[in-house]
Amino acid sequence: MLNGLIPIYRRPLALVAILSTHLSFLFFVDIFSHGTQLLVGSIGGLIFTVINAATMLQSDLLFGKIDLKFQQMIATTGISPLVYVMGMATGDIVFILPGAIFFLGVIVYLTPVTVLDVALIIFAAFLTWVFFSLFSYMISRKVREMREIWPISVIFGIVFAVIPPIYYSLGSIPAPFQYFAYFVPTTFAALIIKDAVANSLSSMPLPLIVYFVETVLMVVFATRISDWRQQTI
Amino acid sequence: MVVPLLVKDLRKDYLVKGKVTSALRGLSLTASRPMILSILGRNGSGKTTFVKIATGQLIPGSGTVEIFGHDVISSPASVKGLISLVPQECRPWGHMTPREHIYLYQRILGNSREGARDRVQFISDMLNIGSFMDTEAVNLSGGQRQLIVVGMSLSAEADIYFLDEPTIGLDVITRKNVWEGIRYFRKLGKTIVLTTHYLDEASALSDEIAVVSDGRLLAQGTLQQLQNMLDYNTRIRIPADFSKGGLESYGRVVSDSQYEILYTDEKRVEEIILSAGLLKTRIEIGPVGLDDVFISLVGGSIED
After folding, report:
1. How far apart are CA A66 and CA A142, in angstroms?
2. Best CA proximity match to B141, nearest among B103, B173, B189, B183
3. CB atoms B20 and A233 under 8 Å
4. Beta-sheet strand order (sheet of B19-31)
5. For residue B85, what is the nearest residue in chain A, using CA coordinates?
6. Per DSSP, what are the bridge partners of residue B262?
7. Contacts of residue B153 in chain A, CB cutoff 8 Å?
8. Residue of A76, A82, A94 to mutate, interface with B, max B Cβ within 10 Å
9. How much of chain A is helix, strand and coil, in % rounded to 5?
10. Nearest to A228 among B14, B56, B136 (CB)
11. Is A224 part of the contact surface with chain B (CB cutoff 8 Å)?
12. Spatial distance between the Cα atoms of A114 and B230, rounded to a whole number of angstroms
């Protein structure tokens, strides 16, 4: 409610802005590919939309910590930092939910997917949300001024949602560079979704396992470092 | 008996541009129950650093902070629920109303929907903020926004409230509303630790006052105890054209831009009145106040 439902109810323009960003990306993918890459563009759009929630979370966490000092009040309530972070992350989902549903709808419309495929697509999106929300939390811990987060958020989006093979296939990258793509978690999200829509579940287990393990490791790591308290020296 | 707040030899250094700066240099203080303890100090004296450590947001270099016998530093989780905080320069979310702020805060604290609504009403009545409870914070004045934050903090049913400059930016009447709220919580048996720059606020509210400077406690006690620490009990304000050389024989003289402030003993007041009368000079006489104690302890001129 804090950073999701109430702001959308009172400032609906933000919702339109977020949705239009991703739709315009899809528009160009569709135009330049003459309609052949609409499905891939929608997969990319779905992942980018989820990444967008994480970049919004960075701003929200920083705003609550630096500008409003709201985080200091929360710290005295007994709520753990991770519960606070995931609560704020849930609020940001509200902003990206229409976009995510739209892209999922396009994917389902364009390909004959089963219920299991849809569940796997949603699971991949969920892992992406968890992984990058926690990653955003780690970034927000280190940033000390609001203005610092704006360039970081832009670079974050480009590094995790534009450069890696989510709007295009992994195979279109020259072989040596494909290995680099595996260092980016969103590559696995794209592989899982692309395998789901291609009904090639047999090739999916490896990306799914790797992405799941990466996310679990992120949760463990974030839990270990999470502390309201700062050690400044 | 378990003491609500027991601080011993608290030290904290910051690294600023590669240089170590000490914010706390062995701060020690206590607060009993019920009590309003005001912490006074100049900017940068370590007040906010102390509040951050005591509320589990900053790890000190050394020293201990115990809240009702729980060690905040080794087990910060043990004091959650016992404390509530108004952070310095805290602001509400612009898109939310005071009612939503306090309600959500109550829900975060684990109160039921009904309990949260009751608490919202209680705070609204106590702080007299009912007229703007449903106005988005972005449309409120700075003082009204500050009241939201104070209301959120006071809505928590804690045992010790840390209020870091809670009345900053409030007009006189609104400040007094907040004072009434603070007094009400004291009557309920709570401990309130208040940092403020308003000496009148500290004088009016406090059971005890702690004066800190450079990260150390200079003195702690009741207003009367602090006043008794001074060598003089009377303060006389005299226009600056009065001969300073003559004044110094009566006591301690501190210069203001327009006045000389003479601290002296009650017994010598008559002599000064006589001298002033001869010179046809208007003087103001009164007892030493907290500002005199503060200046005397912390040092610096009145203009500082």
Report:
1. 12
2. B173
3. yes
4. B19-31, B5-16, B62-67, B70-71
5. A73
6. B236, B253
7. 73
8. A76
9. 80, 0, 20
10. B56
11. no
12. 85
Main-chain phi, psi angles of B235, to 5 degrees: -120, 130
Contact B93 A77 (CB under 8 A): no
Q: Do B104 and A1 touch (CB under 8 A)?
A: yes
**At what angle are helices A185-197 and A81-110 packed, to 10 degrees?**
30
Q: Residue A76 and residue B96: Cβ atoms within 8 Å? A: no
DSSP string, chain B: ---SEEEEEEEEEEEETTEEEEEEEEEEEEE-SSEEEEEE--TTSSHHHHHHHHTTSB--SEEEEEETTEETTT-GGGGTTTEEEE-TT----TTS-HHHHHHHHHHHTT--HHHHHHHHHHHHHHHT-GGGTTS-GGGS-HHHHHHHHHHHHHHS--SEEEEESTTTT--HHHHHHHHHHHHHHHHTT-EEEEE-S-HHHHHHH-SEEEEEETTEEEEEE-HHHHHHTSS--EEEEEETTS-HHHHTTTEEEEE-SSEEEEEE-GGGHHHHHHHHHHTT---EEEE--HHHHHHHHH-S-TT-
What is the residue whose two structure tokens read 């009172």? A10
User: With an 8 Å Cβ cutoff, are B76 and A74 in contact?
Assistant: no
**Which residues of B fall within a CB distance of 8 Å from A73?**
85-87, 90, 105, 149, 152-153
> Six-digit token pair at B182?
């603070």
Burial zone of B149 (CB within 10 Å; 0-12 exposed, 13-18 middle, 19+ buried): buried
With an 8 Å Cβ cutoff, are A228 and B57 in contact?
yes
Is residue A53 a contact partner of residue A94, using CB atoms and an 8 Å limit?
no
- Residues for chain B: how many in total? 304
| ipTM of the modeled complex | 0.83
Distance CA A14, CA A101 (A): 17
Alpha-carbon torsion (A224, A225, A229, A231), positive or negative: positive
How would you write the pLDDT of chain B (304 residues) with one tens digit per residue? 789 999 999 999 998 888 999 999 999 999 999 999 999 999 999 999 999 999 988 999 999 999 999 999 988 888 888 999 999 989 999 999 999 999 999 999 999 999 999 999 999 999 999 999 999 999 999 889 999 999 999 999 999 999 999 998 889 988 998 999 999 999 999 999 999 999 999 999 999 999 999 999 999 999 999 998 888 888 888 876 666 667 778 888 877 777 778 888 888 888 878 777 766 778 888 888 898 888 888 875 444 4
Pairing of strands B208-213, B35-40: parallel
